[in-house]
């Protein structure tokens, strides 16, 4: 069984770019979701020219705490393009894998209605794993469902009440 243990942070500077790998343009569509946090997500990874090169479906389900069940299944790109058009909730972002100690780090730079949001995620081997935060990490967002990718696809940052954006310094 696949288990994801992840912590999330606001990014407060561009210093992470010194450790960044290649840009990975991503499109995510949310096909189904339940009140208890189970989601079915479509993800397409595009080339720099905007052509999908890989696609997969992901089912996520909470377990409580930092861990979630996560199941990924590769699908044909042509099928994914049709599902993208059918997805009622979508977002776009560019992901960068980072070379950092203490876990598998990525930074997501959100586009369109979720710009200028930049988030960092680290996947950990265990919920209680020690973590040294890089100086470009700001406020921890782990557990704040308003900034999950699924929530941002449903209610993008541009549609948030002003006080929500202010509370995250996102004006």
Can you characterise this structure?
With 171 residues, the protein is mainly beta. 13% of the residues lie in helices and 46% in strands. The chain has helices at 77-86, 149-154, 162-167, and strands at residues 3-11, 20-33, 39-46, 52-64, 67-74, 89-98, 104-110, 118-123, 137-140. It has an eight-stranded antiparallel barrel with strand order 1-5-4-3-2-6-7-8. β2 (20-33) and β3 (39-46) form a beta hairpin. It starts with a strand and ends with a helix.
Fold topology:
Layout: E1 3-11, E2 20-33, E3 39-46, E4 52-64, E5 67-74, H1 77-86, E6 89-98, E7 104-110, E8 118-123, E9 137-140, H2 149-154, H3 162-167
Antiparallel strand pairs: 1-5, 1-8, 1-9, 2-3, 2-6, 3-4, 4-5, 6-7, 7-8
Brief overview:
By secondary structure, this protein is mainly beta.
Summarize this structure as a short list of keywords or feature phrases.
globular; 171 residues; 3 helices; eight-stranded antiparallel beta barrel; 46% strand; mainly beta
């Amino acid at each position: 069984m696949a288990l994801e243990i992840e912590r999330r942070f606001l990014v407060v500077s561009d210093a992470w770019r010194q450790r960044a790998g290649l840009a990975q343009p991503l499109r995510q569509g949310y096909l189904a979701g339940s009140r208890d946090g189970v989601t079915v997500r479509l993800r397409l990874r595009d080339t720099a020219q905007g052509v999908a090169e890989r696609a997969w479906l992901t089912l996520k389900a909470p377990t409580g705490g930092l861990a979630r069940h996560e199941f990924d299944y590769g699908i044909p790109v042509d099928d994914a393009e049709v599902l993208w058009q059918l997805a009622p909730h979508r977002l776009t972002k560019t992901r960068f894998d980072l070379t950092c100690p203490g876990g598998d780090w990525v930074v997501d730079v959100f586009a369109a209605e979720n710009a200028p949001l930049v988030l960092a995620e680290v996947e950990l081997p265990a919920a209680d794993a020690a973590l040294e935060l890089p100086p470009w990490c700001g406020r921890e967002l782990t557990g704040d469902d308003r900034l999950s990718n699924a929530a941002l696809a449903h209610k993008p940052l541009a549609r948030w009440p002003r006080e929500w954006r202010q509370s995250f310094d996102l004006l």
